[in-house]
């Protein structure tokens, strides 16, 4: 009886090892998905940081008049009356 039980356990173990190695969802796919998950988590962190930066810019554009003037002058090349703008080619 004990030998039959051990034989059944051996057959079950061999079947499980076969499934792990040769099945549609084998260990290689598992590690590939695990690596992709780690990459996606890093990308999420990066996007959250970028989102926070853009949110701060939006708040500054809504509430900070000095920042609005800075953006208008530096990014849109506006000048005050009496000033001259020089654009240099690179």
Q: What class would the helix/strand composition place it in?
A: mainly alpha
| Number of extended strands | 0
Number of helices: 3
User: Oligomeric form of this entry?
Assistant: single chain
Task: Give the C-alpha Rg.
Answer: 31 Å
The topology string of helices and strands comes to: HHH
Share in β-strands = under 5%
**Residue ranges: pLDDT <50 for 5 or more in a row?**
none
End-to-end gap: 88 Å
Fold blueprint:
Blueprint: H1 2-22, H2 27-63, H3 65-75
What's this, in brief?
The protein has 90 residues and is an all-alpha fold. The chain has helices spanning 2-22, 27-63, 65-75.
Describe it.
The protein is 77% helix and 0% strand. It is rod-shaped. The chain has a domain at 2-63. The model has no long low-confidence stretch (mean pLDDT 89). The protein has 90 residues and is mostly helical. The longest helix is centred in the middle third of the chain and has 37 residues, at 27-63.
């Amino acid at each position: 009886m004990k030998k039959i039980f051990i034989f059944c356990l051996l057959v079950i173990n061999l079947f499980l090892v076969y499934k792990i190695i040769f099945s549609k969802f084998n260990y290689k796919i598992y590690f590939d998905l695990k690596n992709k998950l780690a990459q996606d988590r890093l990308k999420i962190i990066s996007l959250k940081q970028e989102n926070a930066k853009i949110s701060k810019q939006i708040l500054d554009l809504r509430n900070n008049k000095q920042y609005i003037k800075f953006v208008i002058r530096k990014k849109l090349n506006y000048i005050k009356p009496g000033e001259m703008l020089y654009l240099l080619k690179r």
